[in-house]
Design a protein that fits this description.
alpha+beta, 25 strands
Length: about 425
Amino acid sequence: MSNALAIAGVTAVIKDLLDDGMIDHAVTDTLGQGVTVSAIAPDEIELGTDKQPRLNLFLYQVTPNIAWRNAGLPSCDSNGRRTGNPPLALDLHYMLTAYGALDLQAEVLLGYAMLLLHQTPVLPRAAIRKSLNPPTPPVTGSLLPAVYKALQASSLADQLEQIKITPEVMNTEELSKLWTAIQTHYRPTATYLVTVVLIQPTATTSAALPVLSRGPRDPVTNLETGPTVIATMRSPGPVISSFVYANGQNSAELGDAVVVNGQNLAGNGQTLVLANPLRGVNVSVTTPSNVSATSLTFTLPSDPASCPAGTYTASVQLTQGADPSVLVSNQQPLMIAPKITALPATATRDASGGLTLTPTCTPQLQPNQTASLILGDIQVSAAPITAATATPGFTFTALPPGKYWVRLRIDNADSHFINFGPPPVFAGPQIVVS
């Protein structure tokens, strides 16, 4: 595959092809003077009766190649690890413009140039190497500009697809819009599509080990047992369907028992894995109770520093039968709620009606977590959390006096303040503000 220099490499090769073609066809003899071949923007070209005839190749658009783009495999696995480097496949759109100060010069140049590209619908790999790699002494690449020296490393000649050149039709309206955007005078122009340039990333990837056997091996014959055929549409591995939290809540506090409902949960070494990539937390909970094929009960850690409040992705890992490979279930969201452990029963506003509260909570807030304290329906946010703390501060302004139900919200997880009954009633902490 090519690298990021491939686009410039294609332009350089076509420019070199046109330059050599002007010499081979003795165009200078036909015109009676030399010809300049360039690859710059049309508005950079100086016009005038004393200027030399010129052919200019201008890359005006780059578009994705649809065929290669649809054929590319995913570059990352479910954990976000890079597994491959699919190429960036591009089509290049060029304007070939002829400039002449005298009658018919532009037409002569454009005719020869279009004939050259018609006779070279595919750029040979040898021609690409010759254009991008300076010949051997006595001529060296030391006199080339720095950008041309860099193009030697483009690997354009070694990419899987060869470079193809085909005429591209643009109607009068499209050409008019294009030249208007360039903001220069129109000159005789032909447009071409050059495809496909494959730019290969070089990022580090992971590669899975080859499969040694399909299924466990028979201990007597030492032969693989092959895949297990199951006559059902259900997954043969563990599946989580839902979580049941204590007291009918929709989230769990640290130390709570959480019931995992699902399928194929029986086995050995059942482990509940809680991951919170946003906070860089990955916790494993082992030793379940009430184990069955459809249900497990795990007790969450009680350490306030192990699991910050927020939303986690939870999965179950286990082994089944004689197969030592670990089976991993699907992922389901699991919410860990904060808990207010200390809050004054009363508080007095200052002269301006302001009030600052510092409740004690568990688990402690971690840096960059978002925290809000809600009194009734009045919500204020804490200052940015820069260090772990169990006593965040919240400042209310112009707070009306009264009795308020109090909730703490951390990373969109609310502390428990409802007893779901039946009937449901508020049961969280309260504060009287005077």
